[in-house]
Structure formats: structure tokens, C-alpha cells
Amino acid sequence: MKIAVATEGGQVAEHFGHAPQYTIFTITEGKIKDQMVIENPGHKPGFLPRYLAERGITCIIAGGMGSRARQLFEENNIAVVTGAKGLVKDVAAAYLSGRQETGADLCHHAGGEEDN
What we know:
Layout: E1 2-8, E2 11-12, E3 21-28, E4 31-39, H1 47-54, E5 57-61, H2 67-75, E6 79-81, H3 88-96
Parallel strand pairs: 1-5, 5-6
Antiparallel strand pairs: 1-2, 1-3, 3-4
């Protein structure tokens, strides 16, 4: 299992698509076994869900994302957790222990429409 956390300065980024980086956690037997940081390869409509799915990601954690992006992640069999904030590693650990729940979306889109 692999989890991607939208990352900005070691913290969970408010919006998944505009995050400068993603921290990828490899999970084995319910524990973090490896982590790596990748740069955001670019924010184009529909690209990031496919890009992360091709890398084996099964869950994306972010402060927020729009409904279309959420739909695209789900179509790629990637679970979506929004409303996260804090240190990336702490949020990943909370998710693994069942303490990180989907919360209020923390990003706000101009004009009410979301990116994907």
C-alpha cells in the first residue's frame, strides 16, 4: 500500500493540485516502511489522479480538493482523505492508526469550481 500526502514545507498542503510536492509513504504490515518526496509533476486537468495511480498510490491525503478531482481519484481506485492539516508524517501515522478522518475541505476555489 502507498499513501500520497500533498506537501508544502513539511506540512499538509491545503490543495492537492497546487502542492509543490507529494510525500509518498510505503506501508507494509500497517507500518510506514519507506517515504520519499516527489515534486509536483504539473497540475493539468485529470493528470494527477492517473499519475499517482500509475505509481501504486491507493490513498491521497490533502487539506482539500474539488469534487471533480475527488471523482477522478475514486475512478482510479484511490481513496481520498481531505480536511487534513499538520505535519505530513503525523497525518500519515494518524491515517494508519484510524485516527485521521475526512474533514471539512480546506481549499476554496475562486468562482466555486474546483481543479482536478
